[in-house]
Structure prediction request, 860 residues.
Amino acid sequence: MNAPLKTIEGSAKLAATMHLLGREARAASRVLALAPTAQKNRALAAMAKAIRDTRAAILAANAQDVAEAASAGATAAFLDRLALNAERIEAMAASLTLIRKLKNPVGTVMASWRRPNGMRIERVRVPLGVVGVIYESRPNVTADGGALCLKAGNAVILRGGSESFRSAGAIHAALVEGLVAAGLPAAAITLVPTRDRAAVGMMLAGLHGAIDVIVPRGGKNLVARVQTEARVPVFAHLEGVCHVYVDGKAKLGMAKAIVLNAKMRRTGVCGAAETLLVDRAGAARLLKPLVVMLLDADCEIRGDAAVQAVDRRVKPVSETDWSMEYLDAIITAGVVEGVEAAIAHIERYGSHHTDAIVTDDKAAAEKFLREVDSAIVLHNASTQFADGGEFGFGAEIGIATGKLHARGPVGVEQLTSFKYRIRGNGQTRP
Amino acid sequence: MNAPLKTIEGSAKLAATMHLLGREARAASRVLALAPTAQKNRALAAMAKAIRDTRAAILAANAQDVAEAASAGATAAFLDRLALNAERIEAMAASLTLIRKLKNPVGTVMASWRRPNGMRIERVRVPLGVVGVIYESRPNVTADGGALCLKAGNAVILRGGSESFRSAGAIHAALVEGLVAAGLPAAAITLVPTRDRAAVGMMLAGLHGAIDVIVPRGGKNLVARVQTEARVPVFAHLEGVCHVYVDGKAKLGMAKAIVLNAKMRRTGVCGAAETLLVDRAGAARLLKPLVVMLLDADCEIRGDAAVQAVDRRVKPVSETDWSMEYLDAIITAGVVEGVEAAIAHIERYGSHHTDAIVTDDKAAAEKFLREVDSAIVLHNASTQFADGGEFGFGAEIGIATGKLHARGPVGVEQLTSFKYRIRGNGQTRP
Prediction:
């Protein structure tokens, strides 16, 4: 009889904790929204210092997390993502410095015009309010997510993977030290103080109106859960089924460089190419060198009949392969009838993330850039440029594939909203 | 045994109809997204002509709707919103002409920069895709909503109130005539072809990914249902609990003009003031004239003790009154301790819609404009300017009170998204 009772008590207590934490984050967001640039930057500098100063404590907490995960049977890849060392902690501190140097977007006048009745209307950037970040066991997201939201004037509620609970706590302590040193409220960066997964559901329900937007950072399953359950807006970070279309008018050398980079530079990033499409008009000249290059680079190719015909190492492609996000040294490859067919293929199988055309034909390039409905479309450049840093945004919290509010890299500017400020001298509406 | 079977069959049939209609709208949105300005404008001109040409048919359909609603006991106000006449039909056609004259937002380069590696990045406006508009029995929304989405390059699925089913159908027929005359797909503006309320639930579920965003247009209950049930993003049009704060340094004449206009010009619009706050520092000079003016204009006042003290016609205010959207000749009124307290009151009871300060004190005005967290904040101007037309947007589909994507008046520009277009000459990522 005790167990269910305790569960009910436990979940009532958790709900109360989360409700309070939401209210405090909301109150902190009012302070953050009005904080001057210099004060936010002081906090970011103090955070970087505190991360460095408490390195030993962070490493000790992380060692416990890693030991526990290892004994629970976590994979080597998982443990590698979870583990910190002196270098990774330094990278975290350096990232805080980078974010400190970004332009403060809050208060920027985005547009300004005068009405015939003499009123001046301005559209001004303001923070979003409270951002909920739900992520997996990558400790650095605690620092990056907290700092990016702070720079944009938002309070943030962070909920990391339960395997990184101690690491996140130690990093969070350093962030709070920085906030307090700058005279900002500690609740501006809140870490959910429990591993209880029910807390995630409460965040997805919005904590009684305390959360304005949820940013999921992690794999497909996490993002899918967030998108299905969230009662508040979500910056959708769906998978990147990215294409490189090599047009008949492409130079072979450029096509080889771009395809190899797009697929193989790093296979685990969302901007990595997952499908190669080659124009039939150029296939005789282009297909074999591209296929051999990839195979020789130890990339598995799943190809259609035309691709299979050029090298016996090519495996046959299945219908589901065309929409796979491998995040591995595997690529789907096929021959299409020109740019029109490439665009249709991408519309059918793609994920509206990032797609590239390689060609010297300006008309084909413009058609591709115009008609492919993806967050990022490129001509003669690698899909691996799908990254806030490469855009010049300085830092990003992810790549959004939705079409509302944020699309593409989500940097500080995408973490803001706006309002209209109107100055009159007694105008009334006729 | 037959009844439930029939229901299941009926709802399976409806689901199939809605699924198909969503797929067709999605396909039409691909055509619309690439349609040149001239073609969209030809459609809008042909629609206006068709509305005028089929006036008799629209009026006949509307007369049937009105007769049915009247015999079902609809209120006079409801019937007035539902009823069309020659003048209202002409206004609908004129609105289509206004929308035709708006600038086409699609393709506009919003920002452009070059990266150190030579790549040029452009941020370009693109349509959202498919917009679902769910509205009440106001026939003109069929025309306005359809035309605004078309101008922004979106396909639209319209679902009006069931009492206006025939009117909406007749107006929709004219819109389709215009689309077809311009060579655009009829599915670009789809009207849900049934009164079955289950269709609304299917739209809120997104029609299998066919709907990108839902725009509810109507009263509190409709918007609340949409926000609770929607599985796709919603442009939240919450109630307008709008405030006028009359500061101690306000001129009496200006304060009277603005308060009277903000409350009484039209009481049923979302930008109508619902609360008057007067600074205690100016109350002796300002409060009585403002109170008497409103009472003499037949506006009921629910006031705190200070307000009740100046005129015995003032009724006592209750705690819930402070957050009421009356949409009627009623106002809540109270005395506050300066701009700081006014801002705190608005944060507590307001709806983040539209709020105004009247003052000659520049510092108080700037503080109010900066700190009040509403879509629209005004200094020395009436809250009734909360309207896309008054902003110069030409037409609007509503006022958004959410902070994501659209905030304030939702015009053609707010009905678009953007993408990044990158031009390189062989760049790969190091």
Q: What stands out?
A: Chain B touches chain A through 63 residues (CB under 8 Å). Residues 157 and 190 of chain B are 5 Å apart (CA to CA). The longest helix of chain B spans residues 2-34.
